[in-house]
């Protein structure tokens, strides 16, 4: 067998393994999603909010209530209701929000990108700073730098984020005027700018409206940094402990015996191995932010999904709450699957053969 | 001929909260292009000796010596950069268990070419060629396939051969093998030892073979140092092993089973305080 054939064979084997993995993921995804829908359906039936009364009001005559109940299919057996619900959910029909009078799906299309953008900025900052800080803390264990990272992390983890948000607004917006006021865009742009995806940074860059890009950046940077700081605290601690574990391994001694530089040993050999569990940590923290951080969104008037669901909840708008729950659940599933895939890519041992 | 390695009064100490631990307590020996075995029990300081020569004593360990030189280089004065240049290219070390001493997320081929490309300015293709050559030299029959495998995909014996290939690919003058066969099956041990033996002989390397297995060392090395509690208690040519005089060495020899002879009960080592003095 020639060299090329051998490596080709190995590659083909790996590709087939990957395809198999994807297939398995698809099945897992479908079942998890079904479970999610079942749970939301169940919640929708047991909460003490009558969806009929929510529409017709509690002063409607009994005949009207009865008619609407039939129209909405609540007189059917439960399993039929579930299938109707399934069909609707799969076609993106979550009903109409009582509060906004829009279809819930449209509402979510509007609010979710705001959260997605904020959470992405937050995770980029959190992972971008948290991982290097964690690595440094691990390499210089017990040093001054390690203590600093520890304290910074501890503060980020324990200080209430709304308090930090208000204080930072006071400082960076009111005093220093470095950043823009709460909201996603200046009022001046709000009516001239038509978003495409709803991710303002992306949309503005895509349409080459650099002034809007800058303005959106000035709005997102403060809440984004705060969420970033929050996830940094967690990510840096986890990075540190994963790195300490890897740096104590024998293959690190072997790498030193090979004469590699300390930089390569730490940032390539050790970090590449620590990255395997780190992916899961970062993905979970990202998913957590995607649920919508209600406090941050409230403080910064960020029209995200956390704020949307909270408002709907307070107004007994069950369609919106359940729709939002499904979206968040879906995102959670998707990110988990994605991190699993990444895990497999990073760690050859978990790949299927 | 000048010796390849001179060790004079080498000591390795670890300061701890409860006092200083002396892992190696002033040992001296010289090594030419020969095979030197260091035997001793766990904690006798044999591995620490090997790591100190490689400059791999983990902090907070302190290495002291009256002289420590390797083919003309004074290792006591060597800075980190000098060490790095020498490790992997002029002196190399094989560790005990390939399950832990190979990076699990890198292919074997990549780990071998990494050593090469770090020390020598070679192209990717050339590095690959030499790595494959090296894999062949450690008697891997299908180097092309093994090159692309990850460490978890190969057996212990195969992994240890890959380890040897990784460490010898730059052609070092000194090899420190720290229990290179202890994690392997007995049948594979001999194979790996045979490979090591041939490579050391063919390339005229100096070898320090660290082991707790006196028999193995005596069948494989020219000379044996017996260590106990951080000191060399006896130095012997392997041919003279049966003439060992130190009671510790004698005790070890008496414990080894022989075919066709009953040794019940096995003699128990009666440790004397003065051995460690």
Please provide a written account of the structure:
The complex is a heterodimer of chains A (353) and B (277). With 353 residues, chain A is mainly alpha-helical. Chain A has a domain of 241 residues: MetI-like (MetI-like fold, Orthogonal Bundle). Chain A contains 15 helices and no strands. The longest helix of chain A is centred in the N-terminal third of the chain and has 44 residues. The radius of gyration of chain A is 25 Å and the shape is globular. Chain B has 277 residues and is an alpha/beta fold. Chain B is 35% helix and 24% strand. Chain B contains 10 helices and 11 strands. In chain B, strands 7-8-9-3-10-11 form a 6-stranded mixed beta sheet, sandwiched between helices. In chain B, strands 1, 2, 4, 5 and 6 form a 5-stranded antiparallel beta sheet that branches. The radius of gyration of chain B is 19 Å and the shape is globular. The two termini of chain B are 34 Å apart. The chains are: A mainly alpha (353), B alpha/beta (277). Chains A and B meet through helix 1, helix 11 and helix 12 of A and helix 2, helix 4 and helix 7 of B.
Write the layout of secondary structure elements.
The complex is a heterodimer of chains A (353) and B (277).
Chain A: H1 3-46, H2 51-56, H3 62-71, H4 78-90, H5 104-139, H6 144-158, H7 161-175, H8 187-190, H9 200-206, H10 210-247, H11 250-257, H12 262-290, H13 294-299, H14 305-314, H15 318-346
Helix pairs in contact in A: 1-15, 5-6, 5-10, 5-12, 5-15, 6-10, 7-10, 9-10, 10-12, 12-15, 14-15
Chain B: E1 5-16, E2 19-31, E3 35-39, H1 46-54, E4 62-64, E5 67-70, E6 73-74, H2 80-86, E7 91-94, H3 98-101, H4 108-119, H5 124-137, H6 143-147, H7 156-168, E8 174-178, H8 186-203, E9 206-211, H9 214-220, E10 223-228, E11 231-237, H10 247-255
Parallel strand pairs in B: 3-9, 3-10, 7-8, 8-9
Antiparallel strand pairs in B: 1-2, 1-4, 1-5, 5-6, 10-11
Helix pairs in contact in B: 4-5, 4-7, 5-7, 7-8
